[in-house]
Design brief:
This protein is an alpha+beta fold. The protein is built from six helices and nine strands; from the N terminus they run H-H-H-H-H-E-E-E-E-E-E-E-E-H-E.
Length: about 250
């Protein structure tokens, strides 16, 4: 009995292609007889023998997001002080101690860079200092090689020696009620130590016109506050007189 069933299956398998063709032809005839589009029958016939479609390729993984831009280096306190010194700010010893002199240098940098005048070393200020490649240019390019330049707008002093910028200091000049005179002058008198004048108490005063002088003060705020003189920090007042002399050009703009 099993052998007879095997023979039937074999015969059925051999006849299957013919049966499929017959079925397809019948569907085609039926479609044509009903007035249907003959292409429909062709489509049915081709569909029976069309090779199976290849499996779809897997979807590509999503593109990686673009890498974030590297944050600017803020530098350590020592590195910031070293950079300020290289930019000619009077920072004092580069020892990582952000003392009054270092804060004055930071303040001068902020003034030159048109940043808020806080004197504080924040990460943003440190990054800006570290990213600065060169000191500012001269206010008076045609000035004498050894000269002092003062910017009333930025409240900073530039000392040039031999045509080269050597120091940048924060200053406080005259208020709108008692303004500092602008123009080109020369140092005509040097008074060492403390002295009291009609314009206030002065340390190591370097007079450039009338009673107006560049001098040391215990108060050098971020904005104009003097009676017309040019105040510099006491730390700078100690060495400044030895770097200028009578006759040195002073340009105030």
């Amino acid at each position: 009995m099993g052998r007879f069933e095997d023979m039937k299956m074999t015969m059925l398998t051999r006849k299957l292609p013919a049966l499929v063709l017959t079925l397809a032809a019948g569907q085609l005839a039926l479609a044509s007889g009903a007035g249907a589009n003959p292409e429909l029958g062709k489509g049915l016939l081709s569909g029976l023998f069309a090779p199976s479609a290849a499996p779809a390729a897997p979807a590509a993984p999503p593109a990686a997001p673009p890498a974030a831009a590297a944050a600017p280096a803020t530098g350590t306190p020592v590195q910031v002080e070293q950079k300020l010194a290289a930019l000619k700010y009077d920072v004092g010893p580069a020892d990582g101690n952000i003392d009054a002199q270092a804060r004055g240098a930071i303040m001068a940098f902020q003034k030159v860079s048109h940043l808020p005048r806080t004197g504080e070393l924040t990460s943003e200020v440190g990054a800006q200092i570290m990213a600065t490649n060169s000191p500012p240019g001269p206010l008076a390019p045609n000035g004498e090689p050894h000269r002092v330049e003062v910017s009333l707008a930025n409240q900073v002093l530039f000392l040039y020696q031999g045509g080269t910028l050597t120091k940048i200091l924060p200053v406080s000049t005259g208020t709108s009620a008692t303004p500092t005179p602008t123009g080109t002058y020369r140092i005509y008198r040097q008074d060492p130590g403390w002295h009291t004048s009609a314009l206030g108490r002065l340390h190591n005063a370097q007079y450039f016109v009338g009673g107006y002088a560049i001098h040391g003060s215990n108060s050098v705020p971020a904005e104009p506050a003097s009676h017309g003189c040019i105040r510099i920090p006491m730390t700078a007042s100690e060495w400044f007189p030895s770097q200028v002399a009578k006759g040195v050009q002073v340009i105030i703009v």
